[in-house]
Amino acid sequence: MMYAALDDLNRRPEPFSRCTIDTLWTDPWIARKMLDYHLDQGTDLASRRFETIDGIVDWVDRKLGLSGKSVCDLGCGPGLYAMRMAGRGATVTGVDFSAVALAHARAEAAAGNMAIAYRQADYLTDDLPGDQDLVTLIYCDYCVLSPQDRQRLLKRIKGMLKPGGALVFDVYATAQFAQRKEAATYGRNPMGDFWSPDDHFGFQTIFLYEEQNLALDRYLIVTPTRRFEIFNWLQYFDPEAISAEVTRAGLAVEEIVALANGEPWTPEAGELAIIARA
Q1: Is the pTM of the predicted complex or chain greater than 0.85?
Q2: By CB count within 10 A, which of 65, 83, 198, 228 is most buried?
Q3: Distance between CA 108 and CA 262 in Å, rounded?
Q4: Tens digits of per-residue pLDDT, 202-232?
Q5: Residues in contact with 240: Cβ distance below 8 Å, sequence separation at least 6, in sequence order
Q6: Domain spans of the chain, in order of start
């Protein structure tokens, strides 16, 4: 049985043929470890460092104005962006399906006496707040979705926005895809206790789909009592490709900027941030 599992692990699956997005955020142990990564200022693995987040919120405020606006932060996690936007005078709703991350977000909001509404929901299927001036989707959440789910989400966001309301989201750039390499690795407890508190073995294969600018990080984790897989798809974009998707959903691209500072985007800038209007 183990041979069959490893043989399958090293076979290139069809793009987005399997999806395990929810495991990282709803598995009780992994969700707690993800929260640790969100708050760790030594890594950008789950959230960007606070200094970077401050800069992103600053340019969003500068370009779009947050004070007095209704804002919905999709995939809000532990509220790192929501807290900062609320601190600038926005009325914020955060949406995420991680109970662990939302518990932290609610505790932080209460400690800061901030009236942020947090909802545990799947933004692809569950009810979402309407009449929003601004919707944000940060840390390249968009890139893990299939083309069909990306279109469905954009259309749902369009329905959330007031006429002329704005969407701000970020995506990985094709220049970043060009730096990736295919690989196969194996180790014992390869990320410490991230995957499991028990002793375990981790297998990872990285597949690149050159024509689609698509990468797959595929993991097989084997503990004494459990075996599970993670399929982490990442779509990379250039300005033309992401603009076409946004336009197809009925939104108008207003500007494409560098995520870190809101300045005009160049290939050297890394992630693209898209400002679109309903």
Answers
A1: yes
A2: 83
A3: 27
A4: 999 999 999 999 999 999 999 999 999 999 9
A5: none
A6: 32-170+238-277
